UniProtKB/TrEMBL annotation:
GO MF annotation list: phosphorelay response regulator activity; transcription cis-regulatory region binding
Location of the Response regulatory domain: 8-122
CC terms in the record's Gene Ontology section: cytosol; protein-DNA complex
Gene3D superfamilies associated with the record: 3.40.50.2300, 6.10.250.690, Winged helix-like DNA-binding domain superfamily/Winged helix DNA-binding domain
DNA-binding region: 130-227
Protein name: Two-component system OmpR family response regulator
SMART domains: REC, Trans_reg_C
Species in which this protein is naturally found: Paenibacillus prosopidis
Residue numbers bearing the 4-aspartylphosphate modification: 57
Ranges of residues in domain OmpR/PhoB-type: 130-227
InterPro entries the UniProt entry points to: CheY-like_superfamily, OmpR/PhoB-type_DNA-bd, Sig_transdc_resp-reg_C-effctor, Sig_transdc_resp-reg_receiver, WalR-like, WH-like_DNA-bd_sf
Length: 228
């Protein structure tokens, strides 16, 4: 099981049922948790608790999530902000990201999806907080650039390592070829999307995933790994 000891998360949502669900799940994972039910309290808790991650609802009475996000970014502190929204609208996503949010999750969402996004933010912004991370039969160690599968160290090229790591960390989430290209190869990659298929095929060979049970293909959508 992954250890998140020392990682602090502030939950900001005015719905007690949502807060209780998230707080229980995140505490069970080992995170340190504080809760705020409105924007003003969120800013006060942030100043005293100094969280690494703020999970922030958009629709709240008084100061909404957008205003809280803007205020948090104005402090200059290194905080990862994941916004929660009940609206799957492009405008909300663009506004949140423009104001400085790092990611967003649309309600209703699964806990495993949120956890994957939390780990991704920690990897990007606070890599020193995590060492070896376990996902099902996989062990990831960024410090050694090593992935262990079924207790065997995998022989991977740097790109294979980055791709498999990205898929594992986003397990349960459908990843399109274009999204994979952006995140693994980079926005300025000038090649064809088919390069993703080539590397997926190589990873499946190394994982002995002949029936595509580990890395699933969703026709017309992309790829998904299901570990939880």
């Amino acid at each position: 099981m992954t250890s998140f000891k020392g990682v602090k998360i502030l939950l900001v949502d005015d719905e007690p049922n949502i807060v209780q669900f998230l707080e229980l799940g995140l505490l069970n994972e080992g995170f340190e948790i504080k809760v705020a039910y409105d924007g003003d309290s969120a800013l006060l808790e942030t100043a005293s608790f100094q969280p690494h991650i703020v999970i922030l609802d958009i629709m709240m009475p008084g100061m909404n999530g957008f205003e809280v996000c803007h205020a948090l970014r104005a402090t200059g502190d290194n905080i990862a902000i994941i916004m929660l929204t009940a609206k799957d609208e492009v405008e909300d996503r663009v506004k949140g990201l423009t104001l400085g949010a790092d990611d967003y999750v649309v309600k209703p969402f699964s806990f495993s999806e949120l956890l994957a996004r939390i780990v991704a933010r920690l990897r990007n912004q606070f890599p020193n907080l995590l060492g070896e991370v376990v996902y099902g039969p996989f062990r990831l160690d960024d410090r050694r650039k090593e992935i262990v599968y079924m207790e065997q160290v995998m022989e991977l090229s740097p790109t294979e390592y980055d791709l498999l790591r990205f898929i594992i960390m986003n397990n349960g989430i459908v990843l399109s070829k274009s999204h994979i290209l952006d995140k693994v190869w980079g926005y300025h990659f000038g090649g064809e999307e088919n390069i993703v298929e080539v590397y997926i095929r190589s990873l499946r060979d190394k994982l002995n995933d002949k029936e595509h049970r580990l890395i699933r293909t969703l026709r017309g959508a992309g790829y998904r790994m299901d570990l939880l």
